[in-house]
Write a structure and sequence with these properties.
Blueprint lengths: L1 H44 L27 E3 L2 E3 L2 E13 L4 H4 L10 E14 L4 E11 L5 E12 L6 E9 L20 H7 L5 E10 L5 E10 L33 E12 L4 E13 L5 E13 L10 E15 L14 E17 L2 E12 L4 H6 L8 E13 L2 E12 L3 E15 L7
Length: 451
């Protein structure tokens, strides 16, 4: 028993000694690592050593990397994750039309002979946090009377992490109707907007405060469904509840009103789908609609279809050459209630007025920085309204068409110069010729636009 006890006691001492040796070895390794870290910190804190004889001298401090417009804004050594840009769009030209404002249907179109500041736009865009991104477009304009106006064209918030490929947008935004309406003037292929957009959506396009939800459908090709709910009043809801500055619209006095229930809102669904026809060809088509009340007390429905095709060879250089073909067609159904008369305007019967219009444009980027384009516009009415037989032909519904060739030169991605000619033919008014030269420059970082 004494011998076995002595053996067990000796084994325990040996095991304890072995464990002590392992702990000491681990401690020494940790101390060695700490020494290396301390030496590295001291090395980084010391000034740069002098170069050996014969070697070129190096600066004591590394030069700061220069900032470029494609990087986030920097304040000191920090980075502010917001894209800030300023875009100036201006035009100069001449027209045979005495009243250029009645000839041009867009608020950003050239408005007078001589010079026009079409659009001075400041854009704030960036990520709010991992869940939201935001954008604001603040626009300044100078009208023909020399007065400066400022407007919040867009200011909205978008989600980035909703499940099931959903996205929610809320705020003030351009309604996603067709190809042109959701875009800003500096992205257009022409100096002015198409006639059908001006006639149906007014000078500033269809936009208002509201919310929009979209669903990127799980298909092997791009397929997305949009549904927006917005206010239906104001000058940015031209075919809906706009008071038109107290001027008659379709022969009647109209009222703007306020939102009292769901029936006073504007609803705008859209479906877009895109296919790659080949390695060099892409096709994108869509269908849109807008429903809401109008200022006469009736309802307005606008329907539209659009198509965009692009060819760009696989061996292109900086995106050139390319060919694009864009088309939009719309039809508007305006339910005008009966008007009792007000002393200056006679009593008018209730009626439904139907108008339509379309445009088609082709652009050919034949060499780097140079693009030749051609657009054709046409708008007309389905029938003469009963009110027109009483108060006379309405130029806002009368037939007109336009042909516009244009040539654009992009010295860089931050500037462009465009020359455009317009031939206009308006029923009961006549023909007009206009020529415009457009200039644009961009400062700062501007977010990429949708395809």
């Amino acid at each position: 028993m004494i011998g076995w006890s002595s053996a067990l006691w000796l084994s325990a001492i040996l095991a304890q000694g072995q464990e002590t040796n392992e702990l000491q070895q681990l401690r020494r390794q940790l101390q060695e690592i700490q020494k290396r870290l301390d030496a590295l910190e001291r090395q980084q804190s010391l000034p740069a050593m002098a170069p050996p004889p014969g070697a070129p001298a190096e600066p004591a401090t590394r030069p700061t990397e220069s900032w470029t417009p494609t990087q986030p804004m920097r304040i000191g050594n920090a980075q502010n994750y917001i894209n800030l840009s300023f875009d100036a769009l201006m035009a100069a030209g001449w027209s045979t039309a005495e009243d250029v404002e009645s000839l041009q249907t867009g608020g950003h179109d050239p408005k007078e002979r001589g010079f026009t500041l079409q659009n001075l736009e400041t854009v704030f865009e960036g990520k709010v946090d991992p869940y939201f991104r935001a954008q604001a477009n603040i626009v300044l304009q100078i009208d023909p009377e020399g007065e400066t106006t400022i407007e919040a064209e867009e200011a909205y918030l978008e989600t980035m992490s909703l499940p099931w490929n959903l996205q929610l947008k809320a705020g003030q935004f351009l309604t996603e109707f067709g190809r042109l309406n959701p875009t800003h003037p500096h992205t257009w292929d022409f100096v002015d907007q198409p006639l059908v957009n001006g006639r149906f959506f007014g000078e500033d396009g269809l936009r208002n405060p509201g919310a929009r939800i979209s669903w990127l459908m799980p298909t092997p090709f791009y397929s997305e469904l949009f549904f927006a709910v917005q206010n239906s009043q104001g000058e940015t809801a031209h075919s809906f509840r706009d008071d038109h500055d107290n001027e008659p619209f379709f022969g009647r006095r109209v009222e703007q009103g306020r939102v009292k229930n769901l029936g006073d809102l504007l609803f705008a669904p859209r479906y877009a789908v895109s296919f790659d026809l080949s390695e060099s060809q892409t096709l994108l088509t869509g269908a849109s609609a807008a429903f809401g009340p109008n200022g006469t007390g009736g309802d307005t429905q606008i329907y539209g279809v659009d198509m965009f095709w692009k060819w760009k060879p696989v061996n292109h250089h900086s995106g050139f050459p390319f060919v694009t073909w864009q088309n939009e067609a719309m039809i508007r159904r305006f339910e005008a209630d009966a008007f009792p008369g007000d002393g200056t305007i006679p009593a008018l019967p209730g009626e439904t007025l139907t108008d339509y219009g379309f445009y088609s444009q082709v652009s050919y980027g034949y060499r780097k920085g140079w693009v030749a384009s051609l657009r054709g516009d046409y708008v007309n009415k389905m029938e003469t309204g009963d009110y027109e037989r009483i108060v006379g032909i309405d130029p806002n519904r009368d037939r007109r068409w336009r042909i516009s060739p244009a040539l654009t030169w992009y010295p860089s991605e931050f500037s462009k110069i465009r020359l455009q000619y317009n031939y206009d033919d308006r029923a009961h008014i006549g023909e007009d010729h206009s020529i415009w030269m457009q200039f644009e420059f961009l400062l700062g970082t501007h977010a990429a636009h949708k395809f």
